[in-house]
């Protein structure tokens, strides 16, 4: 990659992003064809998993030296938005693995080699939300981990797992909060995912029982607020504030779900759908439908613009090697929440256009609606909390209500 690619804040050359997007576009029909099977299985269908893995979507953000693309957040948003047009759950799983790959890239090179040295397509999953029973303690050369973690999207696809632990929390005045990287063979998957939406994401929890993790496969959680370490010349993408990157990257699948529902409604309208109880034998002739479609497209465009603005801020800071201040990180979190709200509004309008038939089990729109309603309520993009965080930052209140900003 040449330095010119960085001059405007661009972390991926246009030709490379176009290649990624072309691959994602080619996979949309496959994801769409297997969406019902994915939901029934509770995890991406085998053909979908194989295709996503082979195309490198699980490792889009992994280091180039290990076969990844070191994708910037704008590329991540666009790629998983495209994939989600076919299946929200499948795109979500791949996006979460992609985020876990980004965090894994912050570890020592020895740890990165453990994960990708023999297989550059290796998937990583994980969770930072653990039960109160989690324990970790220092031992010779590393830590011993025990506990349970919730909602690990991609856990069924992963060969490695990340979990957040507080080391010696019972004895230390200030516990050492770290990420621990474990082989998937060291964890037991717990069947905890039973939801109305995102059923196909298989976001089950996992447990770990007295597993030793060498110190080089642990990472201080403080590194997630922005890394100043460059592993090798050109890896500027890993300067990003990880929390900000992970939050706004959720915009990708959610925007894609809204777009997928719009695609389906437009396809239905093109076939000549009548409006029951009216004189309109062709719904596209109805001004109310015309205005609704305009509103929906504008809402999705608004979501994209907020997502792209946030991505631009993150990438510009990465290129310059600087850490985003609290105000900028708060605005990025607010941008992520705006995406969620606008996409919810868009799909609600689409349901009004489609009428009751949109809720048939066989209709993809109802699955997009359920998936979007669930995904957009992830804790990291909670609109109410994001508004509070952003408002405090705008008013100069230094104390924040969460460290995850």
What does this entry look like structurally?
There is one protein chain. The protein is an alpha+beta fold and 405 residues long. The protein is 46% helix and 12% strand. The chain contains 12 helices and 8 strands. The strands form 2 sheets. The chain has a 4-stranded mixed β-sheet, with helices on one face. Strands 2-3-7-6 form a 4-stranded antiparallel β-sheet, with no helix packed on it. A hairpin with an 8-residue loop joins strand 4 (160-167) and strand 5. It is globular.
The secondary structure category is alpha+beta
Q: Roughly what percent helix? A: 40-55%
State which percent range the strand residues make up.
5-15%
- Report low-confidence residues grouped into runs of 5 or more: 1-9
Topology:
Layout: H1 14-33, H2 35-41, H3 46-54, H4 73-84, H5 88-104, H6 109-116, E1 124-127, E2 135-139, E3 142-149, E4 160-167, E5 176-183, E6 188-190, E7 205-214, E8 218-220, H7 242-249, H8 251-270, H9 287-320, H10 326-354, H11 364-375, H12 383-394
Parallel strand pairs: 1-4
Antiparallel strand pairs: 2-3, 3-7, 4-5, 5-8, 6-7
Question: What's this model, at a glance?
Answer:
This protein has helices at 14-33, 35-41, 46-54, 73-84, 88-104, 109-116, 242-249, 251-270, 287-320, 326-354, 364-375, 383-394, and strands at residues 124-127, 135-139, 142-149, 160-167, 176-183, 188-190, 205-214, 218-220. The protein is an alpha+beta fold.
């Amino acid at each position: 990659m040449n330095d010119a690619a960085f001059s405007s804040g661009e972390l991926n050359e246009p030709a490379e992003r176009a290649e990624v997007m072309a691959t994602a576009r080619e996979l949309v029909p496959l994801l769409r064809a297997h969406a019902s099977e994915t939901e029934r299985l509770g995890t991406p269908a085998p053909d979908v998993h194989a295709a996503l893995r082979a195309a490198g979507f699980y490792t889009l953000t992994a280091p180039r030296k290990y076969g990844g693309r070191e994708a910037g957040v704008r590329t991540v948003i666009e790629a998983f938005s495209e994939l989600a047009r076919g299946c929200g759950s499948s795109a979500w799983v791949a996006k979460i693995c992609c985020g876990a790959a980004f965090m894994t890239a912050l570890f020592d090179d020895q740890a990165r080699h453990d994960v990708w040295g023999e297989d550059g397509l290796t998937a990583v999953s994980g969770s930072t939300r653990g039960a109160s029973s989690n324990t970790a303690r220092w031992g010779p050369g590393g830590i011993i981990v025990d506990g349970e973690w919730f909602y690990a999207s991609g856990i069924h696809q992963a060969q490695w797992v990340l979990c957040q632990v507080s080391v010696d929390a019972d004895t230390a005045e200030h516990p050492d909060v770290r990420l621990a990287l474990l082989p998937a063979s060291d964890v037991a998957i717990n069947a905890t995912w039973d939801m109305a939406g995102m059923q196909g994401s298989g976001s089950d929890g996992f447990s770990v029982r007295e597993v030793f993790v060498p110190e080089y496969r642990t990472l201080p959680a403080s590194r997630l607020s922005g890394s100043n370490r460059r592993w090798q010349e050109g890896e500027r993408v890993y300067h990003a504030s990880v929390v900000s990157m992970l939050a706004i990257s959720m915009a990708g699948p959610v925007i894609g779900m809204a777009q997928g529902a719009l695609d389906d409604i437009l396809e239905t309208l093109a076939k000549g759908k009548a409006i029951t109880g009216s004189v309109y034998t062709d719904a596209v002739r109805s001004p109310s439908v015309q205005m609704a479609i305009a509103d929906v497209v504008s809402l999705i465009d608004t979501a994209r613009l907020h997502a792209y603005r946030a991505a631009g801020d993150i990438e510009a800071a990465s290129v310059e090697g600087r850490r985003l201040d609290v105000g900028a990180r708060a605005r990025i979190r607010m941008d992520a929440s705006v995406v969620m709200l606008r996409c919810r509004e868009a799909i609600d309008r689409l349901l009004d256009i489609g009428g009751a038939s949109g809720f048939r089990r066989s209709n993809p729109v109802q699955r997009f609606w359920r998936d979007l309603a669930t995904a957009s309520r992830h804790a990291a993009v909670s609109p109410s909390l994001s508004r509070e965080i952003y408002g405090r930052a705008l008013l100069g209140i230094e104390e924040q209500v969460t460290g995850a900003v």
